[in-house]
Amino acid sequence: MTSIPSTMTALLAKGFSLDALELAERPVPQPRRGEILIRVRAVSLNYRDLAVLTGTYIPNLPLPFVPASDACGTVVAIGEEVNRFAVGDRVTPIYTQGWHDGLPTPQQRSSRTLGAPLDGVLQTYIVVPADDAVRAPDLLSDQEASTLPIAGLTAWSALAEGNVKSGDTVLVQGSGGVALFALQFAKAAGATVIATSSSDAKLEKMKLLGADIGINYRTTPEWEHAVKEITGGRGADLIVETGGATLSQSLTATAFGGFVAVVGFVAGYNATIQLRQLIGPVVRVQGIAVGSRARFEAMNRAIAANNIRPVIDSTRDISDAAAAFKHMQSGSHFGKVVVTL
């Protein structure tokens, strides 16, 4: 049995800046009744983490805090009355702690999310309730499995809420983690995928993952009309809206009775739309707030059945975590940026 040290390494944000990240020593937490102690092996970074670290998402968050929400690791100790896991199991904590099925409560969404306001996962050991973690798929490495809690599950929920089926057309925006997961899940469902990006090189990579058509939104700024033309005037059945501020264009590009899953805000928090974009074509718009533990487990079964491998852009050690965040902030990445511990 692996011995557990008394102290561990943690990345602390001492201010709302990437330059305010510092490594520190902290006591290793002990699991109480119903909890598991996880030796964290890999952490994947999300745009939300950047928004928290720069103070734009939760500006009143008390300092210092440990950032990041998504991790994979190994159970090294269990508290009393734990029967979901055993020492040695590989697990990923769920992002919204306590959300097991159905809809989350407002309290869970406001105060029970890892990486703010709860302490994050960029530390060698973390404790979570056993009910708030799932087994990592056997076919995935620790680095790959760490990408699932937010990026993977958000994409899965978007397609599940949109009831994507064979023959549908799905549009994904950009080449971040959510978009690439949505691409892979949509192809597994038998859909046609249109991808948008500002980079022709990234569009070619997305075609290697299965994207059928690529649109460069820099050279084709009115990409919504290109989508309509490509689909013979019909539009996309589902659009995974990661931009936020591009919602109006997405509505124009959506088919009659189609679905727009709003999952992100990388292009801005505000969007201006015309109500006739919703009413006339009977478009459904829904915000996607990641997903429950039950949906996470369903996604993992689909990943195993379809041999889906998350796309990892790069990995860095925790000692180089600030550089990992800055790389993601630059927008040059393709897929997920991962930090190893």
Which structural traits does this protein have?
11 helices, seven-stranded mixed beta sheet, 15 strands, alpha/beta, 341 residues
Q: Helicity level, as a percent range?
A: 25-40%
Strand content is 25-35%
Which structural category do the helix and sheet elements fall into? alpha/beta
Structure summary, number of beta strands: 15
Q: Mean pLDDT score, rounded?
A: 95
Order of helical and strand elements:
EEEHEEHEEHHEHEHEHEHEHEHEHE
Largest sheet descriptor: 7 strands, mixed
Rg result: 20 Å
State the separation between the terminal residues, measured CA to CA: 19 Å
Overall geometric form: globular
Oligomeric category? single chain
Low-confidence stretches: none
DSSP helical segment count:
11
Task: Detail the topology: elements first, then pairings.
Layout lengths: L6 E7 L7 E7 L7 E10 L2 H7 L16 E9 L11 E4 L12 H6 L13 E5 L3 E3 L6 H4 L2 H14 L7 E5 L3 H12 L3 E6 L2 H9 L4 E4 L6 H8 L5 E6 L5 H6 L1 E9 L13 H4 L4 E4 L5 H14 L5 E6 L3 H10 L5 E5 L1
Parallel strand pairs: 8-9, 8-11, 9-10, 11-12, 12-13, 14-15
Antiparallel strand pairs: 1-2, 3-4, 3-6, 3-15, 4-5, 5-7
Helix pairs in contact: 4-5
Could you characterize the architecture of this molecule?
With 341 residues, the protein is of the alpha/beta class. Helix content is 28%, strand content 26%. Helix 9 links the parallel strand 12 (254-262) and strand 13 (284-287). The radius of gyration is 20 Å and the shape is globular. Strands 3, 4, 5, 6, 7, 14 and 15 form a 7-stranded mixed β-sheet that branches. A 6-stranded parallel β-sheet has the order 10-9-8-11-12-13, with helices on both faces. It is built from 11 helices and 15 strands. Helix 4 crosses helix 5 (177-188).
